[in-house]
Design brief:
This is Activating signal cointegrator 1 complex subunit 2. The protein is mainly α. It has 31 helices and four strands. The protein has helices spanning 50-71, 75-84, 86-98, 112-132, 145-154, 160-170, 175-188, 191-213, 221-224, 242-265, 270-275, 278-299, 305-340, 345-359, 363-372, 375-385, 391-407, 426-439, 452-456, 473-486, 492-501, 506-514, 520-523, 540-543, 576-581, 584-594, 642-646, 665-670, 688-706, 727-739, 748-757; strands spanning 12-16, 22-26, 461-462, 468-469. The strands form two sheets. It has a two-stranded antiparallel ribbon with strand order 1-2. Strands 3-4 form a two-stranded antiparallel ribbon. The N and C termini lie far apart (128 Å).
């Protein structure tokens, strides 16, 4: 057996040999590995035929059982199997190569069995790689760090392509574990840093390949080579086949998503990408290729609309990831030293401003970058950290950003901008906030960036409990499953409350639960709280209110309805004449109105008739004369008589002395022309000039009372010819010329000629 507190690479074990004789072997020896064949992985079938689904389920079951068996092995047996079993490495490599990525999950069959099996395989593969990247499991089970680094490097247990695939496959929901795993691999084997430096030029070659396939000019040495005369013209994005265009966009989407996931999970790699000029190459590629690809996806005629939608979704996702990659590189290489207050703050700020200046010619990229990460926020952060920055330079950058928005024909959204200096990882956020607090400077608020499909569609959706949440139902179930795999004793209701509190960030929830740093309102909850039952909405029919409720045709409350009363259009066998002659409604109302026909002038009451009591209530004698009763008619009325109110009091003509004075000023103005003594009543009509003069006098008096300035009289005649004209004459003539078209008889002859020319009037 292995000795305690001795690393695995130095342990010796004694076990029986093939002939039964005991022998001593190193703990890591090929003969100690079990003879077990691990089958390679194949992705779920796209066309869910029963045979293919059954084959996938059976193969995935074998893989899951084998990996669970491997994980259950002791420490020494596990490493013997990992190092010396080639079929295991082929199985793990096949999963990293064929496993569906984030945007490929929508194309998978919706069978629950397939989804559960795929999830089981996914979990088993991740736990296997996690154990392979751990050199110390406990105080008794560990490997010497130097030997561990040599084992994983020489046996190709990890390499840069594998690490990239691990990040893109398992990054969502497991970024902290992946960060620790990759950091341990790079720490124990520094040779991976040199491998990463050699990998970056290959990554840059991806952009050149895409530009070459699109027939666009690419940068670098290939761009300087002259084209051969006999070389065929490269197809463009508009002329290549639909399958080639789909493959090209899928290649771009997979590459950008993978690189972004790696840089996001392992920020230490940003320096390697930054040193190779990755930012300038990426922005140049974005400005050159993205508009061409977008134009092809928008304007080409595809066989299926779903293909066009899928390509547009992948291209939009790629654009977002390229912008986020640029921000990650700038943040971890330029902004991070400024936030932490390092010695090279001035150099980092200068490099950041130089990069922003280099973005100015790339109008499309600059506008998209500023939309997600406003440059104004970064410049404001620099001005707070380093007040010595030239304001002229920063103003020039901000004007360039506004010019970029105008040049692309888009309008900058007027929303509260997110601070671009917010940190994308928890460690970076804590470090930056601590440094800012220690330096007594500014504070950089944390902003959670959406990932994956959430970054594509930032539309609030409703969860299972009816509350609005930023993730879909399937994503919420995935987050719950991810947390419960690590913390199975917690209830789903408690986990839902934690996710809602921490903006559905499963990593933050797991970290705070393990470190016992939950919010006070979450500490008070029962950790075994079950999931709340979804409230069913009441039926609309039970709450509706209508004027026709409970009538004879209410089918919602009546089981039996007289269908003979219901017909469509005119009733069969019914004519308009019969309909008009039908007086049934009159017969129905006849009895009601007959009661009003009986008028009794005198009722004879028989003695002893009991019905006569109704006529004794009002014993009124029509022949009674009430002229001289004590009722004083009109005694209590007002003094004003209605007859006097109708006509005003007038002095009799006999009692009048002199002329009658005018009563009101308004009547004097109205009767001025007719009540003068000097008026000759025999003339038929008065002098028009006199009437105009009086009307003008009344108009002037009215304008004077109201304070209206009288209009200046028009003078278009002016002085005689040769004596010159005044300014008023010129203005009056211009006014007449401009307004003479409003006169009804203007251009009468011209319009008549026009009608005659068009044939409206016979010549």
């Amino acid at each position: 057996m292995a000795c305690a507190r001795v690393p695995l690479d130095e342990q010796q074990v004694t076990e029986p040999g093939p002939l039964g004789k005991e022998r001593t072997l190193p703990a890591l020896h090929p003969e100690r590995a079990e003879d077990r064949c691990f089958v390679p992985y194949k992705p779920p079938p796209e066309e869910a035929s029963p045979a293919e689904v059954e084959e996938f389920l059976e193969r995935a079951k074998f893989i899951t059982e084998d990996l669970e068996w491997l994980l259950a092995l002791p420490h020494d047996k596990f490493w013997c199997q990992v190092v010396f079993d080639e079929s295991l490495q082929r199985c793990l490599d096949s999963y990293l190569y064929h496993a569906p990525r984030g945007l490929d999950l929508a194309a998978l069959p919706s069978s629950p069995a397939v989804a559960d099996t795929q999830r089981s395989v996914h979990k088993a593969v991740f736990l296997t790689f996690l154990r392979m990247a751990t050199h110390k499991e406990s105080k008794e089970r560990f490997i010497t760090p130097a030997v561990f680094g040599e084992i994983i490097y020489e046996n190709f247990l990890f390499d840069i392509p594998k690490i990239l695939d691990l990040c893109v496959l398992f990054g969502k929901g497991n970024s902290q574990l992946l960060h620790k795993m990759i950091e341990n691999v790079f720490t124990q084997q520094p040779s991976y840093y040199s491998d990463l430096d050699e990998t970056v030029p290959t990554v840059l070659q991806v952009f050149d390949t895409i530009l070459d396939k699109c027939g666009l000019q690419c940068e670098g040495a290939a761009a300087m080579e002259p084209m051969k005369l006999n070389a065929h013209k490269q197809p463009t994005a508009m002329t290549m086949s639909q399958q080639d265009l789909a493959d090209l966009i899928a290649y771009l989407c997979d590459s950008t998503t993978t690189i972004h996931a790696f840089l996001d999970i392992f920020p230490a790699a940003c320096s390697s990408f930054y040193s190779h000029g990755f930012i300038s190459r990426l922005t140049s590629f974005y400005e050159t290729a993205v508009p061409d690809l977008e134009k092809a996806v928008r304007k080409r005629n595809f066989d299926h609309k779903s293909l066009q939608d899928d390509l547009w979704k992948r291209l939009s996702h790629s654009c977002r990831k390229m912008v986020e990659m640029t921000h990650l590189l700038l943040h971890h290489t330029c902004l991070q030293p400024i936030l932490e207050g390092r010695e090279n703050m001035q150099t980092s700020s200068e490099e950041l401003l130089q990069h922003f200046t280099s973005f100015l010619p790339e109008k499309r990229f600059l506008s998209d970058y500023d939309e997600q990460f406003p440059i104004a926020d970064d410049i404001s952060l620099l001005q707070q950290a380093l007040p010595v920055i030239d304001e002229t330079r920063t103003s020039y950058l901000l004007q360039g950003v506004e010019s970029a928005w105008d040049s692309v024909g888009r309008r900058k959204p007027q929303i509260q901008s997110k601070t671009s200096s917010s940190l994308l990882s928890n460690q970076g956020a804590v470090g930056g906030a601590t440094a800012a607090a220690a330096s007594g400077g500014f504070k950089a608020p944390e902003v959670r960036e959406p990932e994956g499909a959430e970054a594509m569609l930032e539309v609030p959706r409703k969860g299972n409990n009816g509350a609005v949440c930023p993730v879909s139902g399937a994503e919420l179930e995935s987050l719950l499953s991810c947390i419960r795999d690590l913390l199975p004793d917690l209830g789903e209701g408690f986990l839902l409350a934690c996710l809602q509190e921490y903006d559905y960030n499963s990593e933050l929830v797991i970290n705070n639960i393990l470190e016992d740093r939950l919010a006070p309102n979450l500490d008070k909850l029962d950790r075994a709280m079950p999931r709340p039952v979804k409230e069913e909405l009441p039926s609309v029919l039970n709450n509706r209110s209508n004027v026709f409720d409970d009538d004879e045709f209410d089918v919602f409350r009546r089981d039996q309805v007289d269908m003979s009363r219901i017909w469509k259009g005119r009733r069969k066998g019914e004519s308009a004449k019969e309909l008009l002659n039908d007086k049934q409604h009159i017969e129905d109302q006849r009895a009601r109105y007959q009661a009003y026909e009986t008028v009794v002038d005198e009722v004879i009451i028989e003695p002893g008739d009991s019905s006569s009591a109704a006529y004794d209530l009002d014993d009124y004698d029509d022949e009674y004369d009430d002229t001289y009763d004590m009722n004083q008619v009109g005694a209590n009325d007002l003094d004003g008589d209605t007859l006097l109110n109708r006509r005003p009091f007038t002095i009799p003509q006999v009692l009048r002395k002199g002329k009658v004075e005018e009563e009101e000023e308004g009547e004097e103005e109205q009767e001025d022309d007719t009540l003068q003594n000097n008026t000759n009543r025999d003339q038929f009509v008065q002098d028009p000039a006199l009437l105009r003069e009086r009307a003008e006098a009344r108009r002037a008096a009215m304008q004077q009372r109201k304070g209206i300035r009288p209009e200046r009289p028009s003078n278009v005649a002016g002085r005689p010819k040769g004596q010159g004209q005044t300014l008023e004459t010129f203005l009056d003539r211009r006014k007449k010329e401009a307004n003479k078209s409003r006169v009804s008889n203007h251009n009468r002859r011209t319009m008549a000629d026009r009608k005659r020319n068009k044939g409206m009037i016979p010549s």
